[in-house]
């Protein structure tokens, strides 16, 4: 399975990308169209995109703006994330506490990276690992994650955070002057890990707007969310429910259902594959359930049932029903009412 389609990130992380391209006179819709995402995906901060989508946004953004340092510039434009994890971090007392919270809860909004923080008396190491091994050297993604960390800490504290060293797994570009400007510290390329080394004193300075009551409130929301995840509908159940709503309107293709989940058909296939099923399996299961339900009502003709289940012809419904039950719709209906009459 393609891991790029399994790892998800909130659309809130698109904001600095669109800010940079908009400043270059490029419309948000143009960029989203380039990567196959609808503009409507931005309507809710709870929507998610795949790591593949996210990487393609950087790739296409760099191309549209003709900017070889696009990841760096998007990282500089990054400030606060308007989601539950962002609200938690804002209300923490220090960058150290905020980073601890992100490491604890961040996967709820961004499952594309692993973050580690290692501290000594004099400096703190902030390590970023993109979960897809092939993208852990992607120049735009890595530059974004490291540069955005400095931007975010500055937004939390109001103080410029001066790194000691920045290490990148990707190779050095021909011109590193933009890296020198953004990080203003020792730079190491072709490193084994993506790491920022920061004086520990910067990690314990006060944040601008700490609020323990709000922090506890938002943490409780996260705890409740975690508990709810166990009872949450599976993606398979969501697809089946949506298909049941739309099938009577003759909307039953994989592409059409994928659009309702703001994703491509391939992403829908991969999500379902994770849960051990396929779109066709779900559709057949739903059609079989509905067919039996309708056949129990003498007032609904076989032709009408075919239409209600999204079949173009009655003959197609007959073939599918026989495949499901080894009986024709008429014989199944007759057997059902005969068994009912015997019980009376």
Number of domains: 2
The count of helical stretches stands at 16
State mean pLDDT (0 to 100 scale).
Answer: 87
Total strand segments: 7
CATH-scheme architecture of the largest domain: Alpha-Beta Complex
Biggest sheet record: 5 strands, mixed
Explain how this protein is built.
With 344 residues, the chain is an alpha+beta fold. The protein has two domains: 225 residues, H-NOX domain (Alpha-Beta Complex), CATH 3.90.1520; 109 residues, Arc Repressor Mutant, subunit A, CATH 1.10.10.60. Helix content is 53%, strand content 10%. The strands form two sheets. A five-stranded mixed sheet has the order 3-4-7-5-6. Strand 3 and strand 4 form a beta hairpin. The chain is elongated and about 85 Å long. The chain starts with 7 loop residues before the first strand and ends with a helix. The model has no long low-confidence stretch (mean pLDDT 87).
Quick rundown:
This protein has 16 helices and 7 strands. It is α+β, with helices and mostly antiparallel strands. The chain has 2 domains: 3-227, H-NOX domain, CATH 3.90.1520; 235-343, Homeodomain-like (Arc Repressor Mutant, subunit A), CATH 1.10.10.60.
């Amino acid at each position: 399975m393609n891991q790029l389609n399994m790892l998800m990130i909130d659309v809130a992380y698109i904001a600095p990308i669109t800010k940079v391209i908009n400043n270059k006179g490029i419309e948000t819709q143009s960029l989203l169209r380039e990567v196959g995402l609808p503009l409507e995906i931005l309507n809710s901060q709870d929507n998610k995109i795949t790591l593949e989508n996210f990487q393609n946004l950087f790739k296409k953004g760099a191309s549209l703006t003709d900017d070889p340092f696009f990841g760096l510039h998007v990282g500089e434009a990054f400030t606060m994330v308007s989601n539950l994890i962002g609200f938690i971090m804002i209300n923490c007392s220090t960058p150290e506490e905020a980073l601890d919270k992100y490491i604890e809860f961040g996967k709820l909004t961004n499952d594309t990276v692993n973050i580690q923080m290692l501290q000594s008396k004099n400096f703190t190491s902030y390590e970023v690992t993109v979960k897809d091994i092939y993208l852990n050297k992607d120049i735009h993604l890595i530059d974004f994650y490291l540069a955005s960390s400095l931007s975010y800490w500055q937004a939390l504290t109001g103080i410029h955070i001066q790194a000691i060293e920045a290490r990148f797994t990707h190779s050095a570009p021909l011109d590193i002057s933009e890296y020198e400007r953004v990080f203003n510290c020792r730079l190491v390329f072709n490193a084994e890990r993506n790491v920022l080394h920061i004086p520990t004193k910067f990690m314990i300075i006060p944040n601008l707007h700490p609020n323990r009551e709000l922090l506890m409130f938002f943490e409780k929301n996260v705890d409740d969310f975690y508990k709810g995840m166990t009872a949450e509908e599976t993606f398979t159940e969501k697809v089946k429910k949506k298909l049941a709503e739309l099938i009577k309107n003759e909307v039953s293709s994989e592409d059409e259902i994928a659009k309702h989940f703001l994703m491509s058909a391939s992403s829908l296939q991969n999500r379902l594959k994770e849960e051990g099923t396929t779109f066709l399996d779900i559709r057949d299961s739903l059609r079989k359930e509905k067919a039996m339900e309708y056949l129990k009502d003498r007032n609904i003709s076989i032709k009408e049932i075919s239409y209600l289940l999204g079949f173009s012809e009655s003959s197609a419904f007959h073939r599918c029903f026989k495949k499901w039950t080894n009986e024709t719709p008429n014989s199944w209906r007759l057997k059902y009412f005969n068994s009912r009459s015997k019980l009376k």
